[in-house]
Each structure stands twice: as structure tokens, then as C-alpha cells.
Design brief:
- It is a single chain.
- The chain is α+β, with helices and mostly antiparallel strands and 73 residues long.
- It has one domain.
- The chain is 27% helix and 41% strand.
- The chain has one helix at residues 22-41; strands at residues 5-15, 48-53, 59-71.
- It has a three-stranded antiparallel sheet.
- The mean pLDDT is 94.
Length: 73
């Protein structure tokens, strides 16, 4: 890694949940977002689109990551 280059991350997340109440879908969304944050922090994703699943393996959306670097402004 060049010390003169700034590291960039573009991250787009689109999730969709359906459930019996706002509290339940909020909890499900928060659980998925916490898991995504842990995976990002552990560098488990490469560039591109990735399917996102909930804790029981049901697809709930996608995450897009684009890692890049460039000159400092």
C-alpha cells in the first residue's frame, strides 16, 4: 500500500424484510446489518455484488462493495 494514496470504499446495501410487526423487522434488519459490519471489518468481501442472507439463510437483499485508492486531494 502506497502511503500517499487514500483508500476508498463505496458500499451500497439494499435489504427487504417482511414480518409481523415493525419491532420484529427492525430487529431482523439490525441483526443482518451487524453481521455485514462484522464481515466487512474482517475483510471477507471482494469487490462486487454479494447476496445477503438472514440468520436462517433466507435471501434478504444485496451488498455492493467497491474498494479503490487514489491520490490525496
Amino acid at each position: 500500500m502506497d502511503d500517499n494514496l487514500t483508500q476508498y470504499l463505496k458500499c451500497d446495501v439494499e435489504l427487504n424484510f417482511a414480518g409481523p410487526s415493525p419491532a420484529v423487522v427492525n430487529k431482523w434488519a439490525a441483526d443482518v446489518l451487524r453481521a455485514l459490519a462484522d464481515s466487512i471489518e474482517k475483510n471477507e468481501f471482494e469487490d462486487g455484488h454479494h447476496e445477503v442472507k438472514d440468520s436462517v439463510g433466507k435471501p434478504v437483499g444485496t451488498i455492493y462493495l467497491d474498494f479503490s485508492e487514489g491520490d490525496e486531494f
